[in-house]
Amino acid sequence: MSVLVGTDTRLCVSGITGSEGSFHTLNNRAYGTNVVSGVTPGKGGQDVEGIPVFNTFHAAVEESGANTAMVFVPPPFAADSILEAADAGIETIIAITEGIPAHDELRVYTQLKRMPGVRLIGPNCPGVLSPGKANVGIIPASFFKEGNVGVMSRSGTLTYQIGNELAQKGFGNSSIVGIGGDPIPGTSFVDVLELFENDDQTELIVMSGEIGGDAEEVAAEYIAEHVTKPVVGYIAGFAAPPGKTMGHAGAIVSGSKGTAAAKTEALEAKGVRVGRTPTQVAEIAVEILGG
Amino acid sequence: MDLLEYQGKQLFARHEIPVPSGIPARTVDEAMAAAEQIGYPCVVKAQVKIGGRGKAGGVKVAANATEAREYSEAILGMDIKGFTVYELWIEEASEIEAEYYAAIVFDRSARAPLVMLSTQGGMDIEQVSEETPEAIATLHVDPLLGFQPFEARRLAFEAGIDADLIRPIGDFLTRLYATFIAEEAMLVEVNPVIITPDRKVKALDSKITLDDNALFRHTENAALRDPSDEDPQEQMARDYGLAYVKLDGDIGIFGNGAGLVMSTLDVVTIFGGEPANFLDAGGGAKPEAITRAVEVICSNENVTAVLFNIFGGITRCDDVATGLIEAFATNPPSVPFVVRLDGTNDVEGRRILAEADLPGVYTASTMNEAAEKVVALAKGESL
User: Fold this and answer.
1) How high is the mean pLDDT of chain B?
2) Among B103, B192, B260, B345, whose Cα sits 20 to 30 Å from the Cα of B142?
3) Nearest to A140 among B143, B258, B313 (CB)
């Protein structure tokens, strides 16, 4: 199998008529993802290289049978688009948009938690790739092949770096999940750990975290209690000074909270091995799974 | 974005939170005019975005014009924990019977706003929370339901507020929450909330952090950003749309994607180097962004070598190579560069770079190799 996206994915893209939106939609389709529709209010009836465009998510679901959404609209409109997708009955919503106001994210998060079966990945994430099956988002798929390592990360390019290090050691991936770099991600490391734990294809889980918040500490507790598969950790941001936002809205050390050292310690205290460099992550994977 | 005390108080006033009246001043003359208008005694308060102003001598009560002048002269230009005082807030003196603490925090772990109330105001709240955590009443608010009157009452009773103040403090918290929501704040803190002898509740201080991502719909607040309290390189980077943080070391760092750049800083540190900056060019950086990034990095005089670490996703390695060549053509840097290109169009990018044969530019095929090389170059070793 794989998690979140795969051969059952029927994708509808919000913001499909924008330049970024159409570029990545077509990339995803070229990879083999079943892109069934797009949504741009006011452009219903048009098409993007044969992909039908609808005015609303409700129409897109009804007419094209979409079950997954990718949100590519600019920050002022992104929360609305996510809520619309959920209201229309889309189960998996993947939000790529960076820069959504925190209060919008909080309202969206709270609402979606009240809608059983709806899952938001991101925002401010590179999407989800299940090599050989489907790619939803902006992950450069050509660097990854099918395999048994599940990767989840708060950062896009760091995911590629770690995925590439793993690939050089001969590993492929079940799924690569970018949970995003914002303070309130729709899906947490714990949620994805649960998915990977229950996924037959995944034999090892790589968790790439960074400074800020306590998602890694919470994950450490969860791993100790509920995860039987080996997990390898990585934490970015040892060199980050406190009080400064390091590119991602969520990557900030507040006072003494959320440091890379504290996160690494929390993971190691629960028996999770943490690589100090991306290269070391791959070396640990070799030790665990064999070369 | 953090606000100064008086900017926060102006936001409070907009939401009908009682604050002492005051006037901002940038010079001693302005301060004197303000003091005359407010009358004596008045308070001369340093406006800096750091706590502990009182202890540092940045807050003084002036009984008359002579004292107002003396304190204004002393406080303007004062250094408080590394922050220079450029502005004063001249405020009417308040009569204080009791000091409380109130705050609303965007609690990302709980994914809900956290309201805090304590009768132990006027002190370092972190110290209070460590020594007597029971002295702080806390409550998470349902973001969709909003802050309810019963919650305000419950907090007030739990905090041990006097019976006659339960309702006024409840109103105060309700307005504080309204400010937090309406202005899209990450933090709204009042320390102290004062109770006057006639049992009125007022905000004597303010600490507000606004969400940068929401400023596009709060143009009045966005205008409060003060470029003078930013580092010149950070300012330049902001103008160019680059995420940049200045650090203390001597190795300039450029990369695409926040996580990869943070990781690059760490790897350089592991190899014995000291990063001079964090610079994330973001996804899909075009050649122009690259030339600007080089300009920002090299305008930091401490930089002795630069590392370009790219793993292309949306960003194309050929664009990075082209941008680097343009940067060298317009303004050739005087320090060596190490460039590592992987990802989208990496073969093409490396070819372009090899053909250009830029002086002082070295290549590396892995992140570790790149870090090792740049650390050696920064130490003045030759490769």
Assistant:
1) 93
2) B192
3) B313
Pinpoint the residues of chain B covered by CATH 3.30.470.20. Answer: 98-222
pLDDT at position B175 = 98
What is the value of pTM for the model shown? 0.92
Q: Please say whether the beta carbons of B15 and B221 come within 8 A.
A: no
B340 to chain A: nearest residue by CA? A161
Out of B213, B268, B270, the one facing A100 most closely (by C-beta) is B213
B3-49: pLDDT as tens digits: 999 999 999 999 999 999 999 999 999 999 999 999 999 999 999 98
What residue type is B143 in one-letter code?
P
- Count of H-run helices and E-run strands, chain B: 13, 18
C-alpha dihedral sign at B319, B321, B322, B327: positive
pLDDT band at residue B89 using 50, 70 and 90 as cut-offs: very high
Catalytic-role residue among A24, A58, A103, A248 = A248
Residue-number span of the structural domain to which A275 is assigned? 144-289
Nearest alpha carbon to residue A126 among B314, B342, B280: B314
Mean pLDDT of chain A: 95
B22-92 belongs to which CATH class?
A: alpha beta
Instruction: Report in angstroms the alpha-carbon separations of B69 from A135, B26, B83, B336.
Output: 67, 13, 22, 53
CA distance B74 to chain A (A): 29
Number of Cα atoms under 13 Å in the Cβ half of residue B263: 34
Active site residue A103: no
**Each residue's pLDDT tens digit, B200-245:** 999 999 999 999 999 999 999 998 887 666 778 888 888 888 889 9
Whether chain B has a CB inside 8 Å of the CB on A184: the answer is yes
pLDDT at B364 (0 to 100) = 94
Q: Are residues A53 and A18 in the same domain?
A: yes
| Catalytic residue chosen out of the listed positions B6, B71, B100, B101 | B101
Residues 6 or more apart from A201 whose CB is under 8 A from it? A1, A2, A148, A174
Using CA coordinates, name the residue in chain B closest to A241: B247
Q: Looking at domain B98-222, which CATH architecture does it have?
A: 2-Layer Sandwich (3.30)
* CA-derived radius of gyration, chain A: 18
- A66 in contact with B, Cβ within 8 Å: no
Is the same domain home to A103 and A171?
no
Gyration radius from chain B CA atoms:
26
